[in-house]
Amino acid sequence: MLPVAAALLFGVMLGIGPRLQEARLGRQVASILSQPPAAEINSTDQKQLLDWSAAALSGPAALPSELSRVEFRAATSLKVANHKAVLLRMKNEQRASLLIVDALMTQDNNIKSFHQREGSDSRWSDGRRTYVLLFKGSEQDMHAYMSRMGIAM
Predict the structure, then answer these.
(1) Distance between terminal CA atoms of the chain?
(2) How far, CA to CA in Å, does 103 sit from each of 1, 59, 79, 95, 150?
């Protein structure tokens, strides 16, 4: 038993833990892309949606500066890898949603893009929360949307 525990600790120290977290996030993102949950709140009032999201996440309503131009139309609360999360649907792009996970699930503060079977996603962190832009479309279309919205790559 001791050698197994030592090997596990060694693996976590080498960074396997963060890679496993990111892989788990990727699987759940693919699931959300293929079957998005129903909206719990529909509103075009940005402040109302952000306040609702803050309450669901038990934290501040502020978004990172990269998302200052993005507007939302609906929100849903959910769990991602046993962490509180909210899914915000974009107002001006029906194919796009923003998933905010109240946990650090990606090690990079830079935006990383992935292509899933059902669409594409970009992930980044502010050091406290993980942000995932989900897009039902190609990675190229997602990057064009991100460029229009001023989301730095």
Answers:
(1) 45
(2) 30, 12, 11, 25, 24
pLDDT digits (tens, 9 = 90+) for 45-104: 999 999 999 999 988 878 888 888 889 999 999 999 889 999 999 998 999 999 999 988
pTM attached to this predicted model: 0.83
Decide: helix, strand or coil at residue 40.
Answer: coil
CB hemisphere CA count around 12 (13 angstroms): 6
141 by Cβ neighbours in 10 Å (0-12 / 13-18 / 19+) ranks as middle
Beta strands in the chain (DSSP E): 41-42, 72-80, 83-90, 96-101, 112-115, 120-125, 130-135
Altogether, the residues listed in the chain come to a count of 153
In the DSSP assignment, the letter for residue 37 is: P
Torsion, Cα of 134, 139, 144, 146 (10° steps): 30
